[in-house]
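User: For my dataset I need records formatted as: sequence, then structure tokens, nothing else. Please produce one.
Assistant:
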Amino acid sequence: MIQTGKYKRQYFLPPVSSMDWVKKDYIEKPPVWCSVDLRDGNQALIEPMSLEEKLEFFALLVKIGFKEIEVGFPAASETEFDFARALIERNMIPDDVTIQVLTQAREHIIKKTFEAVQGAPRAVIHLYNSTSVAQREQVFKKDREQVKKLAVDGARLLKQLASETEGNFSFEYSPESFHGTEVDYALEVCNAVLDVWEPKPDHKAIINIPATVETAMPHVFASQIEYLSKNLRHRENVMLSIHPHNDRGTGVSDAELGVLAGADRVEGTLFGNGERTGNVDIITVAMNMVAYGIDPGLDFSEMPKIRETYERCTRMHVYDRQPYAGDLVFTAFSGSHQDAIAKGMAWREEHDLKEWTVPYLPIDPVDVGRTYDSDVIRINSQSGKGGVAYILSHAYHFTIPLKMREQLGYAVKQVSDEAHKELSPEWVYEIFTDNYINCTPNFTVPEIHFTQSDCIMASASIKTGDRTTVVNGNGNGRLDAVSNAIKQFFGISYELQMYEEHALTQGSSSKAVAYVGVACNGENFFGVGIDDDIIRASVAALVVAVNKIPALAQNLNEKDERLISIMNFMQAHYQDVTLELLAEELGLSTPYVSKYIRDKSGKTFGELLSGIRMKRAKTLLKNTNQTVESIAASCGYQNTEHFSRSFKKAFGITPAQYRKESASPIV
């Protein structure tokens, strides 16, 4: 058990209440940004950056848009001294960029610092000394006046050396360890320094408030900053800066509330690199502004490239959940999240929305160089039907029908469960094709020919193993005719209950994709077909769906060639065929043919013929304007009343009712 009694609050409240910042709900304009990656960030690395790495990192910061960059503590390290000189001597500092160097309030260090920046086109000399109670008592063993004198003497020396050194210099002062400093005393020291510098409108000074070790809650820090902002002397000529650290994990909150409280400037690092738990992450603060529609003045549109350079130069790793930049920050594995994102993206496209309002995505991932396909929806055992459909849509252009999504989602989840892995888009596509495009274990239909008179007749070649049989079927469309041929051949019954199609690609060479669903004994089975021709695609999808019906596998015994011939003859001559005519065609006796049909099909000749005629009747009722009397005659019924009774017995409704209730024909 941690002994909490030895800890106490180490911050100081401002002497008067300063809470005007509470009335603001967002930052209206960006602060001035200063990157301290090359100083504060670099000193926190196990292996500091080399000169060449620092030069590359400096170029990255310039490209992002930083106008102020702290380049090091030149008096403390030869590498940092050489780096400052290299930037100046190689003319690597753009006209609109100011470098910044850090120095303690000690004479020899200040002089060495000016040697490092001699000839700089623009440089901020950043002076600091610790002012906290703990530092005064334990480290310096000086009282308040003595510590203030260190700051004032340092400020005077900066002013003197700046006038004697070639270059263009401005000044910054930080009361180091601010959180452990009495707020009124920190103000006193800062004002004493400002009185020395006497900032002007064209030569402003920077007062920087560092949360060196973050000990106060963000709202306390904001109140402290507001108090300072209201009481600094020469305020109109002072740039009030903040330098939050992240010891309590609230560096971003410190920065945001500090700006609301009056800070004009923020010092921080990319990805929050810094000593202990790091500095404030400028990327997060800036991108939070982007999410509110405010341009931060920094360009993070190439986030993957920024991250790659950062990781290579610093040898640090950007955490997978790092805001805006981590591998997984835009990723949804949860099925409900995936479904909401997919629907949100569809809504955005359908309504041509300009504003970003997609659920679970605070910003558009594309704006920071990420992709929807590989970054947003990723598939594992927690994923759902919406996520799988989204992957197949955005990566492979399949628009999976709603009725099919649940079954497909379970198929993908099962693989992820068994593999205990995330599934790549390629893996998801492989599962999809294996289960819904290439799944024909029992039969295929390699060839079909269609003829049309008053309905569609399909002559389908059904291949089972090494055997191919031509089977005839009729229907109210090409797909229905092929379906009836398959039903006839395998002796199974199912209903076509779903059909959708779309172009898989665009242009003259585009392919069509068809989705077919069939229902059998309360179960649904789906297939997908792809072809240049939509009819062939539709048939391919039907074949896959029917291949999955369990009853089909049970009926895969060798089909009787004579029965197939009988059925094909009856399909072709349904109007006037009789048992006697059929027997004559086969060269067999009528009783033998009658018994043969009953034994092999389980139905009488009359029942088979009635089934064929009823299918034709439904087709004509649905697709033509012929009268019921005309349809009865064309289907082989001499008596309309007999036809109507037979139709109602077969389907439970009259021909007229069926015509009224029937929908548009299936392909």
